[in-house]
Amino acid sequence: MTYKPVFSRSDVEIVARETAFQGFFSVQRLTLRHRLYKGGWSESFTRELFCRGRAAGVLLHDPKRDQLVLVEQFRVGQIDETDRAPWALELVAGMLDANESIEQMAMREVQEETGLTISNLRFICDYYNSPGGSDERISVFYAQVDAANAGGVFGLDEEHEDIKVVVLSVSEAIELLSQGVIDNAMAIIALQWLQLHHSSLLSGGNEVSGSE
After folding, report:
1. Cα 187 vs. chain centroid, distance in angstroms?
2. Are 208 and 201 in contact, with CB atoms under 8 Å apart?
3. How far apart are CA 40 and CA 42, in angstroms?
């Protein structure tokens, strides 16, 4: 591998940091400067940082039936869409609680949003959702479930969650992906990973990993 980053964290100086907004989420206002590729330092400038922290999502697969368990729920980020309703078909996902590992959070969210118990939890990847303006970093996992009795409506009332469990065949989910019906980054990444490793997962292969 020939790529090597030019800069490190020490090549950025935070001059000032303040909370610009605190609500369900928070926004920080940073004044900073950084080293330039052409040499020297940039002038100080201001950026707003949308603070969401760590999150994780889990692609739930029943290899015996070759079905996926997804969830559908209202998403305010799609409220201004004119050609679709603001409900999204997604992976089970959630935010990290204090003193909780990413793996623990993934298992908790599956129970809260589907009532299912997972096995064979496998890491797929980490990624930044929108690093131009947000600190949110997402871990994506694959896990196996028994989808025989999956279904219903779940979620925590205190968090205003109204989550419908949706069971689809793998082929149906891939078709919805190709049609643009499934159009959120976490689900796209997970389903494309599933396409790469589908045969091995059905055969019970142990060689599948997120780094392949």
Report:
1. 8
2. yes
3. 7
pLDDT digits (tens, 9 = 90+) for 80-118: 988 889 999 999 999 988 888 988 988 899 999 999 999
205: β partners: none
pTM greater than 0.85 (yes/no): yes
Residue 197 sits at φ, ψ, to 5 deg, of -115, 10
Backbone angles phi, psi at 17, to 5 degrees: -140, 130
Partners of 74 in beta bridges: 87
One-letter-per-residue 3-state SS of the chain: CCCCCCCCHHHEEEEEEEEEEECCCEEEEEEEEEECCCCCECCCEEEEEEECCEEEEEEEEECCCCEEEEEEEECHHHCCCCCCCCEEEECEEEECCCCCCHHHHHHHHHHHHHCCCCEEEEEEEEEECCCCCECCEEEEEEEECCCCCCCCEECCHHHCCCEEEEEEEHHHHHHHHHHCCCCCHHHHHHHHHHHHHHHHHHCCCCCCCCCC
CA distance linking residue 63 with residue 69, whole number of Å:
11
Q: Enumerate domains of the chain plus CATH numbers.
A: 11-51 (no CATH), 54-202 (3.90.79.10)
* Matching residue, tokens 């131009």: 132
| Active-site annotation, residues | 159
Per-residue pLDDT reduced to its tens digit, 128-145: 999 999 999 999 999 999
* Dist. CA 88–CA 72, nearest whole Å: 5
Q: Which two tokens stand for residue 84?
A: 């679709």
